[in-house]
Every structure is written in C-alpha cells, then in structure tokens.
Amino acid sequence: MSTLNEAQKQLAVNGGEKAVTAIEAPSQPKVGVDEFMELADTWGFSDEAKGRILDAIKDEPLGGGPHLTRYYNPRPSKVDAMEAEVREFLGTKYALALHSGTSALETAYVAGGVGPGTEAIVPAYTFFATAAAVVAAKAIPVIAEIDESLTIDPLDVAKKITPRTKAIVPVHMIGTVCDMDPIMKLAKENDCLVIEDTAQAAGSEYHGKRCGTIGDMGCFSISSYKYIGAGEAGLVVTDDERLFTRAQNHHDTGACWRPDRYAEERFDGELFCGTNYRLSELEGAVNVVQFQKAPARLARNRKVYKTFVSLLQPHKDILPQQVRDLDGQVGYRLQFFAADAAHAQTLAAALQAEGVGASVMVSGGARDWHIYKYWEHILKQKSSTPVGCPFTCPYYEAELPPYAEDMCPRTLDLLSRCVSMGLSEWYTEDDCKQLAAAVNKVLGAFHEPIEGAGWHDITP
C-alpha cells in the first residue's frame, strides 16, 4: 500500500492534490474505419476498390468518430442539410425528416389532431400505410372511391364527409396529381384538414404549386422504392408553425428539437407523449444528394413522358388515364383503360409480346396492399389487442363505415381494366418512338383510331 503525504491526503476540493492526474488508455473512436468499410461493401465496390479505399483511410485520425444521430451533432448535420434541400425544392416553410413515409403519415395525423372520435378519408387505391397510420393515430379510416385519374374522387369524398371528419387525405399515386381544387374547397367548407400523401409523386405539381404543399401538411416516402430517395426515410412538410412543432414533438418525444429541451411547453398542445421517428445522419447523407439530383431527374422524366404521349394514337374505346395537370405530372408511368377486364388482359399480353413491359393493375388473385379489398386489417377491424381500439372507441359516437371487399366497386372496376407500363427517365427519343409504335400497333389491331386528337384529349 502506497503512503500518501499530507497534500495527497487532503481532498482536492479543499485544495489538496488530485488523485487522478493522467489516464494512460488511448482513446479510440466508437465508430471508425471498419464501419465505413461496411458502407463501401454495401455500395457494391469490388474487393480491389475496397482495398484502395482502406489504404487511403486506415490511418486517418477520426478523433471520437462520426456522430450518426441528428441532434447534438458537433459536425454540420446531414439531416439539416437534407431538410434545407427539401424546403428549396418544394417551396415550403418547414420540412421535418423522419425514418419512413409511414411514420411521416402517423406524425402528420397526430400533429393535426386526427385521433379518438375522428375520421380521416383515404382513397381505396393507395398503399395500405395511408389507412394504417390513421388507425395507429386511434382514428377511423373512411375509404373513398377513385376516379379515372387513379386518385381520390372528390365527388365521393363529398358524400363521405361527416361531422367527425378531421382530415381528407388525397394520395398522388404513381406520379399523378389529385384534383386538389375541389378537395381544398370541401375541406374549407367542412372545417377539416388536408393532409397530402405524396409518397409516389415527389416533385409533382398542381397549377404551378408542388404537391405536398397545397394542403395543410404533406407527407413523403423517401425510399429506395420511390421516385426520389434511397434506403428508408420520410418527410412531413407544412407552412404552419404550430403543426410543425407538434410534428416535431411526435417524431422525437425526447424533445431534442426544442431550443430548451426541458423547458415548460410554449403553447397548449406543444408537448405530449410522442415516439422516436428521428432520421439518422446516414440516411440524411444519402438523401440530401437525392434531393440535389431531383430537379434534373424530374426534367428527364417529364421530357420522356411528353415525348412518348405525343407519339401515341388515340383509339376508340380506349380511355387514357385522366391527368389533372399535364405539366405537373412526374411521368414515370403511363396508364389507359380498356372497356373490360378481359380485354385489358388481352392488350397487356399483346404489348408484352411486342417487348413492352405492360401489365393490368389488378391481375389474378394477388393480394396487393395498394388495393383496399386486401386491407383485411381494417375490413375485419383488427387491432393489436383484444380491446379492439380504435374500432371500439367510446369517443367514436357513430356506426363504423360499412367495411366490405365490395364497398368501392368503381375502384375495383377501374383497376381491373387499367393497363399500365413504366417509363424510364433515361429513355432516348428512339426508345420512345419504338415503345409508342408498339402501343399504336397493338391498339390499332383491336380498335379504330381517332383522327385529329392527342392522347390526353380523350376524356370520359
């Protein structure tokens, strides 16, 4: 046992010597070169390329290593940078990045007060998450028909508004914009919110305004499966400061987003029990680049779409998908309707034989969760517990909507006879000519051409 002198015995707080003067253990970053090399492997670089990368970075001093969470990051945040790109691209005042499009929807619903005793109207054709997030917010989804645009039908929405309607949720499907003017009018007349689901149409426009910024809030899925995005991410955008603040609270109930994290709430409703849907710096780093690339990608798609449809010959008994704003269309798919489901299958098969990647929107018995009839979670009122919330909620003072597989017959009819094909942003003019010639050839074999009209001149 070592012998201490009087100065060492005295507590340092009282002027004595410190007991700990130096730590010998070297500091190592928690996250360092090994993790970075896993990213290089994820990107698919060859072993030779990975070897060169490792040689270049193995001796790089990293200090404590990168901070991969958004808040309290000593470096400039990649998520902050992503949100700045989004605000510039969409022209919105506020943008909040989250970890998925589904979490964005739930966050927007909760921020807007969609909850017990209320309803949100969603289209019968959308990915299930649009409706599932309503249930997650403890509200009741009301399912409305689509029209020939393949987006929600404002006429059916008008029939399904009740005193309990808190939000209308138009979904801009497959790059096509909803008819927003009548939807906004209905919302104003009935004092409810419009929460746009723009998961499949980032960058689309309606009368010169970006979709997602027309309603009270807009939600986006920014993922590998979407037109813009990689990995998994989501966005909520709005021009309303109160809605934005409430969305922040729901996405990070730890309140790291607040100027003073632990302060009392600044307005009634700012603080409540939320969750943790924060986006990581890794996703932010990837998706800030995706939004930097977005304007050029959008321009390429629109050029391809307009070139392609300019070459198409309208034919009798063939109805093109109705496009509410041709200039605002993203343009990565083309759809048209045959007179019946059997003929749609015939046309799709003929197009496939010609080398066109065409299919019918509803084909066979595939359980496609983009179509309401397969949302058994809602149709059968399933819940995470036997209590059955929100379908048994005492605050919901009405009969539940008449959930059934045949409740939206027009939607099922339209999808059963809708022929769809993808369009690549990289198609050349010659590619467009070949594909259009194939479509004209197939349609011409079964239908009489309509002379003197353009493809989108044909309406119901």
What's this, in brief?
The protein is α/β, with parallel strands linked by helices and 460 residues long. Helices cover 34% and strands 12% of the residues. Helix 4 packs parallel to helix 10.
What report would you give on this structure?
This protein has 460 residues and is of the alpha/beta class. The chain has 3 domains: 31-66, no CATH class; 78-289, Type I PLP-dependent aspartate aminotransferase-like (Major domain) (Aspartate Aminotransferase, domain 2, 3-Layer(aba) Sandwich), CATH 3.40.640.10; 296-368 and 409-457, Aspartate Aminotransferase, domain 1, CATH 3.90.1150.10. Helix content is 34%, strand content 12%. The protein contains 14 helices and 13 strands. The chain has helices at residues 6-9, 33-42, 47-57, 78-90, 101-111, 129-136, 154-160, 180-189, 241-251, 281-310, 341-353, 376-379, 409-416, 429-446, and strands at 94-98, 119-123, 140-144, 165-168, 193-197, 205-206, 209-210, 217-221, 234-238, 319-320, 333-337, 358-360, 418-422. The strands form 3 sheets. The chain has a 7-stranded mixed beta sheet with strand order 1-9-8-5-4-2-3, sandwiched between helices. It has a 4-stranded antiparallel beta sheet with strand order 10-11-13-12. Strand 2, helix 6 and strand 3 (140-144) form a beta-alpha-beta unit. Helix 2 (33-42) runs antiparallel to helix 3, helix 5 (101-111) packs across helix 9 (241-251) and helix 10 (281-310) crosses helix 14 (429-446). The longest helix is centred in the middle third of the chain and has 30 residues, at 281-310. The chain starts with 5 loop residues before the first helix and ends in a 14-residue tail after the last helix. 40% of the residues are buried. The mean pLDDT is 95.
